[in-house]
Amino acid sequence: MKAGRPDDLGDFDTERDAYAAALTAWAQRQADGLLERADAKDGGPPDFHSLWAAQSPERQAQLAALMLSYGLRLAQIGAWSVLGVWNPEADGWAPEVMEAWLAAAAASHAAQYEQAAYTAAVAAVKDEGDWRDNLKAGLASWVVAAGVRAVTAATEARSFGSHDAAGASGLTHKVWRTGGKNPRASHVRMGGDAVELGKTFANGLRWPGDSNGDADETANCNCRLDYERGT
Q1: What confidence tens digit (pLDDT) does each residue in 22-65 have?
Q2: Which of 19, 87, 116, 191 is the 20 to 30 Å CA partner of 49?
Q3: How far apart are CA 109 and CA 112, in angstroms?
Q4: Does residue 150 contact residue 20 with C-beta atoms inside 8 Å?
Q5: What is the pLDDT of residue 51?
Q6: pTM recorded for the entire structure
Q7: Is the dihedral of CA 73, 74, 80, 86 positive or negative?
Q8: What helix, strand, coil percent values describe the chain, rounded to 5?
Q9: Residue (of 13, 17, 156, 11) closest to 81 by Cα position
């Protein structure tokens, strides 16, 4: 049976925004839980290892599963943006092939985001002022950062999906298309740049949102790729 674009897939903006909302809501629940447990402790600052880090494996697995579920949808949006033009029958391509890479990416994002929360909690004890106020402020920033991470991860998943479909469809070159309302100046300059499918762009990225790159090149990026077939 030939692969087809799932009927329930929305467009990129809709799926990205749903991802950001889900990840932010998840982070808010975790932050609220930690604050509640911390407030229940008498005396000085609590042991954040027992309150937070001890449950880290379970929490990371939960977060990675959430991120993978959205990543699979966004990767398929990217893939079908290519397949619809170059390979409507999806010959040589299947969505299942993308799952291992997306699962690894989700696990990496989850680990990084988890570490950021623990860092914020530990800093609350070390910084000047009341540790409770510091903790609330640090976790509030952590929750806000969920939206940025979701946008970045969404762009990465779409880019990976389109790249995977391009390779399966025999396309040979990728073209950087600058997007978003306030793109980086470096990404504006790269708009229209084309490189071979297996190469990196001038900024060292394989695609927009590439997790191999630094945050200053990837965070909140809304660029995308087009593809070409060489003669």
Answers
A1: 999 999 999 999 888 888 766 677 787 788 888 899 999 999 99
A2: 19
A3: 5
A4: yes
A5: 80
A6: 0.92
A7: negative
A8: 65, 5, 30
A9: 11
Inter-CA distances, 58 with 52, 88, 163, 224, 228, Å: 11, 40, 32, 33, 43
Task: Report the distance separating Cα 17 and Cα 8, nearest Å.
Answer: 15
| Gap between the Cα atoms of 59 and 193, Å rounded | 40
- List, for residues 162-192, the tens digit of each pLDDT value: 999 999 999 999 999 999 888 999 999 999 9
- How far is it, in rounded angstroms, from Cα 193 to Cα 198? 14
Q: Where are the domains of the chain?
A: 12-171
Scanning the structure block, which residue is given the tokens 């409770």? 132
Q: What is the pLDDT of residues 105-153, one digit of tens each?
A: 999 999 999 999 888 888 887 878 888 888 899 999 999 999 999 999 9
- Which parts of the chain are beta strand (E)? 173-177, 194-196, 224-228
Q: Which two tokens stand for residue 107?
A: 């696990």
